[in-house]
Write a structure and sequence with these properties.
Elements (H helix, E strand, L loop, with lengths): L25 H5 L1 H7 L2 H30 L1 H4 L15 H12 L14 H29 L9 E3 L3 E6 L2 E10 L5 E15 L5 E9 L9 E2 L5 E6 L20 E10 L5 E9 L3 E3 L1 E3 L3 E3 L4 E3 L7 E3 L10
Parallel strand pairs: 2-10
Antiparallel strand pairs: 1-3, 2-3, 3-7, 4-5, 4-6, 4-8, 8-9, 11-14, 12-13
Helix pairs in contact: 2-6, 3-5, 3-6
Length: about 325
């Protein structure tokens, strides 16, 4: 096997990093909500904790500042004196009052009096700011937890692709499967061939993308994925593999990216699973082992043989030859 850099890993992760964005990096802040959702969990949790901690400390300091400027801290124990916030003696008590107000606990020991207009204004500002922060951060965490990325882990692709004859035609095939009983609604499969090429004008395209026909015209790309299916690309005169033979396969360098999309039945959200096959993972003259068997009243799928293949007689020549 030749080890080289893949464009898409077997688990579907794209090996592309964006650098030297310059002024374009400001666009991430203009779409801050999506930026937070795209961050890793550890950064989301850190931002979540820091935002609430800083907001709590700042608002508690503002309540303590009002009490300090009005002189409530010195006369808080005087029963004849009417403070802005009752029973606020120091910063910890101001912090507890803010928490009771923000969390709507309302113990009743600390409360705003009617002789504190600045406190009423700060209370309104705290309520509005708290609602905005809660909606933003809690909404971000909810969207991140409900993302269907984990659903893609229960969609399987065969480790290798095979080339063999089917119905008298040379075909490139691979297998897909769904490990869950819940269906993928409107499941559709697409394939891209990524290969470097040079145009007749002399332009070099390092990662040129070419579409592989897996049944667009016949509707075979629309999958009813309740059992493992073998996806077939017929190699004909319109296929980019028209000149591919068993011998030339050893010297070729390409990557086939497979994209499976569908709607998760239980959540209604769109899910996408990806994988790729390099030229080293294409087996010439092989066919997949059957995995379906009929039991008493149902069909059984044996996933232990999902990736297994066996050799079949296949001409070593290309379709063109």
């Amino acid at each position: 096997r030749r080890q080289r850099q893949r464009f898409v890993d077997k688990n579907g992760r794209c090996n592309v990093q964006h650098g030297n964005l310059g002024g374009e990096s400001g666009r991430y802040l203009s779409d801050l909500f999506t930026t937070l959702v795209d961050l890793k969990w550890r950064w989301n949790l850190l931002i979540f904790l820091l935002t609430y901690t800083v907001a709590w400390l700042v608002m508690a300091s503002m309540w303590w500042g009002i009490a300090y400027l009005r002189g409530d801290l010195q006369q808080a124990h005087d029963e004849a004196y009417s403070p802005c916030v009752a029973n606020v003696y120091n910063f910890p008590s101001a912090f507890l009052f803010f928490i009771e107000t923000e969390a709507t606990i309302g113990y009743g020991h600390r409360y705003i009096t009617e002789r504190c207009p600045e406190g009423i204004i700060l209370f309104l500002f705290q309520s509005l700011l708290g609602s905005i922060v809660d909606a933003f951060l809690i909404g971000c965490m909810f969207i991140k937890m409900s993302q269907p990325k984990k659903r893609a882990e229960t969609l399987m692709f065969s480790r290798a692709a095979v080339v063999s004859q089917r119905d008298g035609k040379l075909c490139l095939m691979f297998r897909v499967g769904n490990l869950r009983n819940s269906h993928m609604v409107s499941a559709q499969i697409r394939c891209k061939l990524i290969k470097s090429r040079q145009t007749p004008e002399g332009e070099f395209l390092p990662l040129d993308q070419c579409e592989l026909d897996v049944g667009f015209g016949t509707g075979a790309d629309q999958l009813f994925l309740v059992s493992p299916l073998t996806i077939c690309h017929e190699i004909d005169s319109r296929s980019p593999f028209f000149c591919l033979s068993k011998r030339s396969l050893r010297s070729e360098q390409f990557e086939i990216v497979v994209i499976l999309e569908g709607i998760v039945e239980t959540t209604g959200m769109t899910c996408q699973a990806r994988t790729s096959y390099t030229e080293d993972e294409v087996l010439w003259g092989h066919r997949f082992l059957p995995v379906m068997s009929l039991e008493d009243g149902f069909f059984r799928v044996d996933y232990s043989q999902f990736h297994d293949t066996f050799e079949v007689p296949t001409p070593p020549y290309s379709v063109k030859e």
